[in-house]
Predict the structure.
Amino acid sequence: MGAADLVPGVSGGTIALITGIYKELLNSINSFSIKTIKLLILGKFNEAWEQLNLNFILPLFAGIITSILVFSRILEWLMINEPIGLWSFFFGLLIACIFFLVKTKLRYSLNSMLYLVAGSFFSFIVTQLDTFSNEIPLWYIFLAGFIGISAMILPGLSGAYVLFIMGVYKRVLLNIRLAQELILDFNKEKFIEVASELGVFVFGILVGIKVFSKILSWLLDRYPDKCIAFLIGLMLGALIKVWPWQNQVPKLSGDDPSLNISVLPNDFLGGSPEIVKAFLLMFSGFILIYVIERSKILLKK
């Protein structure tokens, strides 16, 4: 989930949904309440631990945080130096997720199909929004965290891409990298700057995930078939964003945002289309999801 959330166009929620932990994740987030705080104040740590489902939450979030710290530099390098390979892998992964969810979760009814189309259209529109960047105040960083985490827990709707659209994606990645460097080369002024921005961003994430998970859990309980269809639609609409071959549209002026259009490998203008490598990595992404699915079945047995 951590690695997926770092990549614009891919969602950690997709990984949670395909691995079967999505509903438990939402329920665990929703379990944090005033009652939990009271239990902690009264020293009833065992009850608080059980109510928060920390046997599930702690390993999960430890994995996410570790992945972000480990892969933030790697993915940053891959997006610059190996974009076709990176997007090919995630395209295959996303295709596999859609295939398995359609096979196991989707109900074939008119209502479900309408919600699937609606989810696809909504996700497609989001991926076509222009990106922008300018001077970023702290309140805007909080807002980006609040909105970004809402998208991150939605399968198919990339929180990283939402941050990219809002113009804070590179800033967040830079701050994560600087925070790691400060451990070895401490600088008080730089620490205050990085800590304040990352702190406000994380606070936005905590508020956003609490608010949004409550709404999403309510919808999944009340309208499970429609929600699943809409979520699969979100993933379908996101496919165009992770298509490996994209040409940049020429800018009319220097202030215009960078725009890309998906093209066939033969029409790719960014050098060699690397077709063999691309399809091998697509297949690898697909196989990875297949292995996860088989492992899930074996664990249940």
Summary: The longest strand covers residues 246-249. Residues 2-300 form one domain. The chain has a mean pLDDT of 79.
